[in-house]
Amino acid sequence: MQGNTRRTGIMTDVHRRFLQLLMTHGVLEECDVKRLQKHCYKVHDCNATIEKLEDFINNINSVLESLYIEIKKGVTEDDGRPIYALVNLATTSISKMASDFAENELDLFRKALELIIDSDTGFASSTNILNLVDQLKGKKMRKKEAEHVLQKFVQSKWLIEKEGEFTLHGRAILEMDQYIRETYPDAVKVCNICRSLLIQGQSCETCGIRMHLPCVAKYFQSNSEPHCPHCNDYWPHEVPEVFDPEKERETGMSRSNKRSLRSRQH
Amino acid sequence: MRTSSPGVRGGKADSKSSRTRRPCSCETEQICPNKAPGEEGDPKALQQAADEGRPHQAPSTSQLSPAPPAPAQLVQKAHELMWYVLVKDQKRMIIWFPDMVKDVIGSYKKWCRSILRRTSLILARVFGLHLRLTSLHTMEFSLVKALEPEELDRVALSNRMPMTGLLLMILSLIYVKGRGARESAVWNVLRILGLRPWKKHSTFGDVRKLITEEFVQQNYLKYQRVPHVEPPEYEFFWGSRASREITKMQIMEFLARVFKKNPQAWPSRYREALEEARALREAHPTAHCPRNSVSED
What we know:
The structure holds two protein chains of two kinds.
Chain A: H1 13-25, E1 27-29, H2 30-44, H3 53-64, E2 69-75, E3 82-88, H4 95-98, H5 103-118, E4 124-125, H6 126-130, H7 143-155, E5 159-162, E6 165-168, H8 170-183, E7 189-190, E8 197-198, E9 202-203, E10 210-211, H9 213-219, H10 245-251, H11 255-261
Antiparallel strand pairs in A: 1-3, 2-3, 4-6, 5-6, 7-8, 9-10
Chain B: H1 6-9, H2 11-20, H3 37-53, H4 61-64, H5 71-90, E1 95-96, H6 97-105, H7 112-127, E2 129-135, E3 140-145, H8 164-177, E4 181-182, H9 183-192, E5 200-201, E6 205-206, H10 207-217, E7 221-225, E8 234-238, H11 240-245, H12 248-259, H13 267-283
Antiparallel strand pairs in B: 1-3, 2-3, 4-8, 5-6, 7-8
Helix pairs in contact in B: 3-7, 5-7, 8-12, 12-13
Organism (chain B): Ovis aries (Sheep)
Protein name (chain B): Necdin, MAGE family member
């Protein structure tokens, strides 16, 4: 049980503790994941060299494969932060949430999800969601109650709220990627650059292709005259900055400050 | 009613032996031929307890389909149960056997013993976690860390709150009462979690020391003698650190989760929580969720 895990598929206590803690936290940003990895090495095998994070996670995933779960890496749609979550690949519905919420609450989430996916901006207004309260399955829910349930979703990191509108948290996108693609195959939007599911982003006003904000940032980095990769028309939106973890640590900028500088554009 | 026997509680020793038996070629796709005798006791006793508690079962579909399911289906159920238990634990919800049957095992109830066994094996091998029956009386399971040392993770990601569930249980009791909670009342509540003042717990250790000394030292709780009472009695209050780090709304969320009720079921407390939330928003308009919130621990 000592820590020489050059072969894939061997779980040691380092990996086990890592998995435990990742599961406890639900979703973690990359900097926290690295700290977590360091902590697990320190506890169980302080003499070993810390494996590169990508390899470390791939090793664990090779063991998890037969269990139909995976440590997935994603990127937050608004500011391009890498995030990690342990997801269940075998879900055929919103089953991850199922044990947490009542039937009418789950249905409220489904309604909100549908509005978000159908919307052009990737956001659904609180009013529009609450107007659907009468159509929910299960016990009757009042609008006041629904407001509270929406806040529960925000706290559990399924939804993000901005100025009275709701969109999907990065965690929800990671967990429900497959479910969303299967359930809304026509309404679903995809990023032109990375081909992943797209909820928030920028779109070309001429040909309509869409790109994630962090994908826009990378694609047009140091390009003073950005043009649409598809139709070559002038790209009309402000190009955000590429996420740089080093820079953020230096300036000590808080997340909430950064958010207010970005605007979402379509 | 069965009293707890070593067979029921014997999880830790058995799991260790199942861990050292890892050379067993039990890949999850095949049924493991090695039956650990100790582990039979665990779910078997549970199964009997479940049956005892439910004399009038509705005719189960397993009676209508006598053929045992394919091994692959049992494996799949074990995987679903594993995830179910992990998520419940993540949300700090009670893992209740009847819920497990209702939400996951379903018509495979007849084979829940082998499903449970496989799930426990996977959790131990992959996550280093024990699926332990903590209370035969209430049929509650909990996930217990099977790795040594156990205590360090609390500080792994920075100064997070310790023993959140236990602490919240006590804090919410105090909050709902609206005044100090006598030690006897606290132990009544902790009994639900299977905790007793004289018993050492695998996760919490010496529980009495934890709540009367450690939590007090960390300023999460205050432990004071009740004035003018003989023989001496003690009561608990919120500590200054709890008042700083935990909001009343978080307490309401916790209560709602544990009792599966709407937080508005405690109307005056809920109103207080709303007031506090409003006051906090007005005081700190740019702040978003506090970093040390309960849900992040």
